[in-house]
Every structure is written in C-alpha cells, then in structure tokens.
Amino acid sequence: MTVFEPYTLGNLTLKNKIVMAPMTRSRAIDNIPNDLMVTYYEQRSDAGLIISEGVSPSINGTGYARIPGAYTEAQIQGWEKIASAIHAKESKLFVQLMHCGRSSAKVNQPEGARTIAPSSVQLEGEIYTDQGMAPYDIPEAMSIEDIKTTQNDFVQAAAKLIKAGVDGIELHSANGYLLDQFLNPVTNQRTDDYGGDYKNRVRFVLETVQQTVEAIGANKIGVRISPHGAFNSMAHEYEDLVAMYSYFAEELNKLQIAYLHIVDHRPMGAPDFSTDVLARLRNIFKGTIISGGGVTSAQQAQDYLNKGNDLVYIGRPYISNPNLVEKLKQERELTPPNMDTFYTPGVLGYTDYALF
Ligand SMILES: Cc1cc2nc3c(=O)[nH]c(=O)nc-3n(C[C@H](O)[C@H](O)[C@H](O)COP(=O)(O)O)c2cc1C
C-alpha cells in the first residue's frame, strides 16, 4: 500500500495517506477565520486529510497573536466556509482544538480572558505579541470549577464545528499546551485527583475525550500527543513517562477514537530518547496512527508507513508547496519555506507560494 493510495478513516475515505500537519499561521484577525484562510486551506486540499492550525475552544484558550477560535458564531461560520472549500476539492478537515494554558500573554488574548493552567508555574522566556516581546503570564491554578468549565468549552466547540460541517476534531494534547500541561509533572503539581500519579495526570484529558465522544461520536475525534517532547519547556524525561503514555493509549483504545497522532520532533532538533514508547503505542493502540516529521520525499513518507504508521503528517513543506502531493509524486524539487512569514499577518508567505 503506497502513500498515494486511499485510506479509510472511520466513515471517511481519504484520497491519499498524506496529512497536512496542524500549523499555527496567525492570520485570523480578531481570532476569526477569514477568506484568506479559506484560500490557504483550499490551495492545500491535495492532502488526504487536513488538520487545521491550533484553534482555541474558549477565550481563555487563546495565547498567541491572531490565532482562530471556535467559540463565537462568526468563528464557526468561518470554519464552515473552510470546510466547504476543502470538501469541494475532495479533501477532509479535522480542526485542532488547542488551549494554550500557560503558553500565553494577556496582550494576545481578547478582553476578559484568564490565563489558566493545572498549576501556577510560569513558562520562562518571552512570547511574541504585536506590541513586542513579553514575558509569559503567571497562570492561575485551575479550580475544580475551571476544570469542568474548560472541559465543557472543548465539548461545545467540538459540537459546533461538527454541526458546521467539519469532519472531526483533534484534541491537542502535545507540545506543552493545556492538555499536555496536565500530563507533564513539571507543569502539573496538583495534589488533587488531577495531579500526582500518572493516572491522575491523564484524568483531565481522558475525561475531556470521553465527554467529546458522547457529544460528537468517537470516530470524529483524534488526539495528538508528544511523548518525550521538550517544546514549551516540558520535561522530556520522567520516571513514569512510558507507563503514563501506555495507560493513556490503552484508555483511548477502549474509547475507539478515530486516530492517535504522535509527534516526533527529533527531526526538528528535539532531544533524542531511548525508550520504546513509540513501538509500545503502536502495539497498544489498535486504531489509526498518524506520525511524521522531517518528510520531504515520497520515500520518507513511505518509510513512516513501513514502520507501522497508517498515515503520515507533513508540516513545513506544506507551507511553501501548496500542491505538495503532486510534487512528491513527480519527485520535483520542493520550494523551501520562508520562516520570517510563518506568523505574520496577510498574504505574504501564506497564499502566494507558486504551484510549480
Ligand atoms: C509554523 C508552524 C506552526 C505550527 N503550529 C502547530 C500547531 O498549531 N499545532 C501543532 O500540533 N503543531 C504545530 N506545529 C508542529 C507541526 O505540526 C509539525 O509537527 C512540525 O512542523 C514537524 O513536522 P515537519 O518536519 O513536517 O515540519 C507547527 C509547526 C510549524 C513549523
């Protein structure tokens, strides 16, 4: 089975096994998906599946400048347009729900938002804002009420997106954002049922998945994880890491979600690791697994499939090669992306990359 052949994901038929990776592009002025974004996603619809950039399920979940949301009527209408443009090109769309948690600064948030996290542990360093670099906020430790409200925010956003025609949602439990902040002992120092041993640290995410399953159905849900990830100053090694991810995968397997999406940022320079966590996850999780990282040729994509993954994600090459699948098929040279325009507003470095 080659990477260019179709794949059945739940009720969906994907036209190939290439997944456009979720990538924040910061073009959503006032956090509302707009027509420029419709063009961007439509241009990249040769992917079998598109996973959207990180989308906030609530005002509290915003953190970076100009990221889109899925909590107002105008935002949902924006996603409806994007989904319909993608469907017209016979591709599929999962929207990634990303709550930034502590990876946030007040200036990047709408009026009235709160920066919340499992524990009040500030992220060191500075975050980009349109007014200049700023320290990350000192987050408020979430109360039990905050936990329930936030879980409900995910569920509501998911339900509205599905109603608007989106094919599914991905819960972003990787890369140091809120869900990952619950998993990781560096950011989770709670002493209640949501902190401490690994079963407790996984509780917030599993409950959120469970509630979302009840609202929209398991076959419309994916979960992204980054075991051994170090991005956003997460601890990339800790004693119960393999045990925790094994348990997490067992529980997700029982819930029969559409896919498990595993980030491996070693091709991007992340620290190496020697545990067998990836092979274990493949053994435990019986559903679809998406993985990737550093892919720039059809052969490299195929190598990920040969290692036991079902679908392969490709990120950066999609920024600068809108018709990436066609280029990979024809073994054409890829256009390198311009990093300076990854997160800048407007057309430049966004929808103006040539097809060939
Ligand atoms: C500009 C940019 C924005 C990204 N934003 C997100 C994001 O919103 N959510 C996410 O899960 N990963 C995000 N990532 C990580 C990518 O999904 C992917 O894992 C990473 O780029 C490695 O894949 P690649 O080597 O094919 O680029 C981002 C990466 C880049 C380059």
Number of helices: 10
Mean pLDDT value: 97
Gap from first CA to last CA:
27 Å
**CATH classification, class level:** Alpha Beta
CATH-derived architecture: Alpha-Beta Barrel
Summarize the helix and strand pattern as letters. EEEHEHEEEEEHEHHEHEHEHEHH
Unreliable stretches covering 5 or more consecutive residues: none
CATH homology-level superfamily: Aldolase class I
The strands making up the biggest β-sheet line up spatially as 3-4-5-10-11-12-13-14
CATH topological fold name: TIM Barrel
Helix content: 25-40%
Strand content: 15-25%
Describe this structure in words.
With 356 residues, the chain is of the alpha/beta class. The chain has a single domain (2-341), classed as TIM Barrel, CATH 3.20.20. Helix content is 32%, strand content 15%. It has helices spanning 35-43, 73-88, 144-163, 178-183, 198-216, 241-255, 277-284, 298-306, 316-320, 324-329, and strands at residues 7-9, 12-14, 18-20, 49-55, 92-97, 116-117, 126-127, 134-135, 140-141, 168-173, 221-225, 259-262, 288-292, 311-314. The mean pLDDT is 97. The protein binds flavin mononucleotide. The site of flavin mononucleotide has 23 residues, from strand 4.
Write out key terms for the chains shown.
TIM Barrel; 8-stranded parallel barrel; alpha/beta; globular
Q: SSE layout and pairings?
A:
Layout: E1 7-9, E2 12-14, E3 18-20, H1 35-43, E4 49-55, H2 73-88, E5 92-97, E6 116-117, E7 126-127, E8 134-135, E9 140-141, H3 144-163, E10 168-173, H4 178-183, H5 198-216, E11 221-225, H6 241-255, E12 259-262, H7 277-284, E13 288-292, H8 298-306, E14 311-314, H9 316-320, H10 324-329
Helix pairs in contact: 1-2, 3-5, 5-6, 6-7
Residues 21-24, 53-54, 96, 98, 172, 174-175, 224, 263, 267-268, 292-295, 314-316, 342 line the site of flavin mononucleotide.
